[in-house]
Design a protein that fits this description.
Chain A: It holds the Pfam family BPD_transp_1. The complex is a heterodimer of chains A (about 290) and B (about 300). Chain A is mostly helical. Chain A is built from 13 helices and no strands. The two termini of chain A are about 20 Å apart. In chain B, about 70% of the residues lie in helices and about 0% in strands. In chain B, about 45% of the residues are buried. Classes of the chains: A mainly alpha (about 290), B mainly alpha (about 300).
């Protein structure tokens, strides 16, 4: 199906100078990318007195878990326990991601493989919508949400994530690679379209599932709830982070602890699924 | 074939698309159409919208000096961070493609992890903190470059540039992944043929063989990039506040959030949104035209 991913082409026309330039640039950009994350990790393990050292240090001399302990204590004193924030975040991520994958791939299959009148228009709308940042419709979206009584419910974050265009687009692109003969074999066996989708198409697009999982999880995990969630017991982890970060330098250590806690799950998920993501992204091009 | 016959014949296809399209209509299409309609009205969410024609647009471009300022900021983000991060994504993906799969995977992770980590950009608030505990101030003072700490996030002279740096840090997104993937799937034989045909170095290789092959990925990257660079807002609000000091780093999006959520002038805010959307569409059309011309050569 997908072209083998891990070959690298025969290297001709390579000069040593070029290699040195590449190493230097990669090194500089790599430092720029990694340093803030490293600083987060280091700060999370800094005891209070090391946070206040001048000049600030990029390493920690006496690492401590105090910040993590404080993180749980602070969260406990903030109306609702830490576990509640964690539950809210996980619930939204899991329900949002599963729904997104199902709904997007259900729609992607006919868009990739069937012929019908509205197909071209829908495909064009989807490419157009890729361009779109949701903030642009912030206000009408709020009105729609409040008319549907979604404000202050989990669904205010979950339902919009089910229609993220990027997921549908990538899934559709990936599905176009499935050989038609495979689908026809299913039809000859008497399966209806729904069955073909579930039994033949879905098992063949596992890399795309994983890719959608990454993008959807990453999006939902970082959602702050913005102006859609007000109840304290529905708030998510990033909200907790911003509340703690608002405490300024004295809370820097705890803030870093929460940040570290927040950044690890999406990174682990990406490490696990990286090769699938790459396999899916190969088909991402817009022609 | 008529519409009804088409629908009857392809009922299964339409039914499978229906759940997605229903949600898409509710959460994207209706809000877009509503934005366009509301932009011609006065609306405060309490009373029904009142039709005012082009008034909002006239005010926006002729009477609102701050709008011109945030428009300028937005174009700075879109036309500085946009191309830089697009080129950075492409060049890094190109460099990465020279390594073996394991190293490549690690480098991809390093470059992509800021986007994965999402909200963690608040750590930049500590790096650029206005007191001596800020990493940048601390270092500059230790090296004797600064005598007094600079209030990076409040000083109108600096905040825009700080946010550009953070935005660049965050900007290697889906487009970058598409480029990395694209580089791995180039037709190997073309490079060998190219070498025989007299391609001398990797720049010629890139220009004559790689880029034309990657036109579809480049288009995808461009679309993702336009959305990201015109939509800059979260970082601005998190680091500079809403609004930033003297609107020095506010963008069209934060300005519309300001009008929409603080002043409740929904009609005016919607006009701002429509202007932004049109700017994004035009940029997209321009880039598509450029890439198409190049790739069919």
């Amino acid at each position: 199906m997908a072209k083998g991913f891990s070959y690298s082409y025969k290297k001709v026309n390579r000069s040593v100078y070029g290699n040195i330039v590449i190493f230097i640039i990669l090194f500089i950009v790599g430092i720029f990318m990694a340093l803030p994350l490293l600083y987060t990790v280091v700060s999370a393990f800094k005891p209070l007195d090391e946070i206040f050292i001048f000049p600030p240090r990029l390493y920690v001399r006496r690492p401590t878990l105090d910040n993590f302990v404080l993180m749980f204590q602070l969260a406990t004193n903030m109306w609702v326990p830490f576990s509640r924030y964690l539950f809210n975040s996980l619930f939204i991520c899991v329900v949002g991601t599963i729904g997104h994958i199902l709904i997007a791939s259900l729609a992607a299959y006919p868009l990739a493989k069937h012929q019908f009148a509205a197909k071209k228009v829908i495909n064009e709308i989807i490419v157009l919508a890729l361009l779109f940042t949701p903030q642009v419709t912030y206000i009408p979206l709020y009105i729609v949400m409040s008319r549907l009584h979604l404000i202050d419910t989990y669904w205010a974050l979950i339902l919009p994530s089910w229609q993220m265009t990027l997921g549908l687009y990538l899934m559709k692109q990936f599905m176009t690679q499935i050989p038609d003969s495979l689908l026809e074999a299913g039809k000859i066996d008497g399966a209806n379209e729904l069955k073909i989708w579930w039994r033949i198409v879905m098992p063949n697009v596992k890399p795309a599932w994983l890719t959608l999982t990454i993008f959807s999880f990453q999006y939902l995990w970082n959602q702050t709830g913005g102006s859609f969630i007000f109840s304290e017991n529905l708030k998510v982890l990033p909200t907790l982070l911003s509340q703690i970060a608002a405490g300024g330098i004295a809370r820097a250590g705890v803030g870093a602890a929460v940040a570290l806690f927040l950044m690890i799950p999406p990174i682990i998920l990406f490490v696990i699924s990286q090769s699938s993501v790459m396999e899916t992204m190969v088909t991402s091009g817009i022609k | 074939m008529g519409i009804i016959e088409d629908f009857k014949r392809n009922k299964a296809s339409y039914l499978m698309i229906a759940p997605y399209m229903l949600l898409f209509t509710i959460f994207t299409l209706i809000p877009v159409v509503a934005s366009i309609f509301l932009s011609f009205t006065n609306y405060n969410m309490l009373q029904p919208p009142k039709w005012v024609g082009w008034t909002n647009y006239v005010r926006l471009f002729l009477a609102d000096k701050i709008f011109l300022k945030v428009l300028r900021n937005t174009f700075i983000f879109a036309f500085i961070t946009g191309p830089i991060s697009y080129l950075m994504s492409f060049i890094l993906a190109w460099f990465i493609s020279e390594f073996n799969p394991k190293v490549r995977a690690i480098l991809t992770l390093i470059f992509y992890s800021p986007s994965l980590a999402g909200n963690v950009f608040f750590i930049w608030a500590f790096i650029f903190s206005g007191d001596t505990y800020g990493l940048i101030n601390g270092w500059l003072m230790r090296w004797g470059i600064l005598k007094e700490p600079i209030n990076w996030l409040q000083d109108p002279n600096y905040v825009l540039w700080v946010i550009i740096v953070v935005q660049l840090w965050l900007s290697l997104g889906a487009g970058f992944l598409a480029f990395v993937a694209g580089f791995q799937n180039l037709d190997r034989e073309l490079f060998e043929a190219g070498a025989i045909d007299g391609i001398k170095n990797r720049f010629q290789e890139l220009w004559y063989i790689t880029i034309p092959q990657m036109a579809p990925q480049l288009m995808f990257g461009a679309v993702m990039q336009i959305g990201a660079s015109f939509g800059v807002s979260t970082v601005v609000m998190a680091l500079g506040g809403l609004p930033t000091r003297q609107y020095s780093a506010d963008t069209v999006v934060t300005y519309l959030i300001d009008y929409g959520t603080v002043r409740f002038e929904m009609g005016y805010a919607s006009a701002i949104a429509v202007v932004l959307f049109i700017a994004m569409l035009l940029t997209n059309k321009a880039i598509a035209a450029i890439l198409r011309r190049y790739s069919t050569d």
